[in-house]
Amino acid sequence: SKAEIARGDRELAAAFAMLFAGLKNSKSICVAFRNEKLASLAKRNWREMGAMRVTALPSPKQAFGAGRSIQQVAARPFVIAVAPSRDQLVQLQEVDEERGGKFCLILLNARLRGLAESDELREGLATASNPAFHLRFAGPDGKGLVYHRFGQPWVVARRKEAEGDEGELEEVSRSDEEPRFSEVEAALGR
């Protein structure tokens, strides 16, 4: 459900925030969520996370002059963008280009990979980045899995269908390169 996805996004962001919260430079970090509701929930649930800023990414659909600009949100040298929309990704990419790469952008659950339909922006960002960790459900029934961690191959697996094998996965594909959507679907269909 959407609520479970939002909770997962928030919990992953909390894990990353905890990695940085104890550092002396935590005030250099901004955790920016897709919308104000998610940012408010994070603030309420996280309570104390050092001096890092927790906020919402501005909506590109806001009226001109309303709310914050992306430059204000990205004023800190380290920005953790949580589940940004496509329009917010465009804005973040523009800020990165304006600053000549002088700020660190960490994308959490940006949903760049495994797209059924082509999206030039997301494909470009996925190609330009090297994921430290990637996990997504795949296949028409969602019983497949694509998994990768830094320095390891990409693995496609599916749930075993035999009785008594609850939750067990069998590997169906392994490669050094990230598999395309069609390759994942073909591997799961074997």
UniProtKB/TrEMBL annotation:
Region entry Disordered, spans: 161-190
Biased composition (Basic and acidic residues): 171-183
Domain DUF1995: 11-185
Pfam (any one): DUF1995
Matches recorded under InterPro entries: DUF1995
Superkingdom, natural source: Eukaryota
Descriptive protein name: DUF1995 domain-containing protein
Naturally occurring in which organism (per UniProt): Alexandrium catenella (Red tide dinoflagellate)
Taxonomic lineage: Eukaryota, Sar, Alveolata, Dinophyceae, Gonyaulacales
